[in-house]
Target: Translation machinery-associated protein 16
Amino acid sequence: MPRTLQKVHKQIAKKRGAVDALHEFSRDARRLRRAGARDDRLVHHTSAVLKARQPYMERLHYFFDAIQTTEQPLTDAELGELVTKCIHRDAEEIAELEKERRKGRPPTRREEALKQRTQTEEKEFKTGFWVPDLGDEETLLKLKHWNGEWTALSSAKFARLLNTGGKQSSSFPPKSMS
Model:
């Protein structure tokens, strides 16, 4: 039972005893329905936020794994190579899925999703790919010791890296072109 509904349920049970014996249109029954609806809205909002963050979290986990052996801050060229590897990280799986598919058959959902993600990230790389600023030593250390939580990244520096080699500072959390 979610927190708000549990709280209201407990208050009503303390006052009345059995909550099962409520009249359908009583005040307490309406309180329970409102609390349930409020909890449903909160759960829906939380899942939408987590779903929107998921691509960024996957990207950050990739960079987290990639820099574990790195000692020095990366140059812009090295960061560009790392971003290119990040964008094409699923190339082997896509090739394997294409090879397994019989001739003339449509691609699987997994294959389509991987191709679409690669295309989206390539487009983003042209306009500015959102990455942790690994050229900054402090950010490099923070990301190396990152605990995997979204909120733990608020003090790290981020940048938008262009495929032409330019780099602009960015904010956390990522916005459209911050």
Q: What stands out?
A: The beta strands are 129-132, 158-161, 167-170. The helical segments are 3-16, 27-66, 76-87, 91-100, 109-127, 137-144. The CA atoms of residues 22 and 29 lie 6 Å apart.
